[in-house]
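Question (not urgent): is this output format expected?
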Amino acid sequence: MPTLAPGISEQRAARRSGHRTGSGFTLVELLVVMIVIGIAVAGASLGLDALRGRDAALAAERLRWVLEASAERAQVRGRPIAMELLPDGYRFSALDADGRWVAFDEPPVFAERLLPQQMHWELRVEGRPAERLVFGARAPRFELVLHAPEGDITLSGSETGAVVQQRSAERGA
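Got this back:
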């Protein structure tokens, strides 16, 4: 077992040899960790903002496809299908044999959906405001404007059942 020179404590010997005697962190190490955590949080928040913007675009694209499918399905079935606007989303219903609108429970593509937060809309069918879009033997001409913080998205439907999507400039710009 090595012996220490007289007058040199074990702590001083450990410092001279490069070994640490304390179990704590230095101020520099703590600052580096805090900076790394700050950068990670900033990156995550920027990523979430970008995803929110994509949510509106994805919701509009999905709705465009479902509206086209509704027009086609109504023509094939020979029975009307309606999209009803809800305050925070939309649902589909079909006209039953008794002439009542009932929830359309066929493929999950027609399931009730919620809109992304901070998104609302206006529907005009044949040029008039409406709360329901009905597809029958022929598709109606309509304009559905989705208002999102990133800008408006307009879905325009024609009598053929085709739906065209247009994106306007950012709101407030």
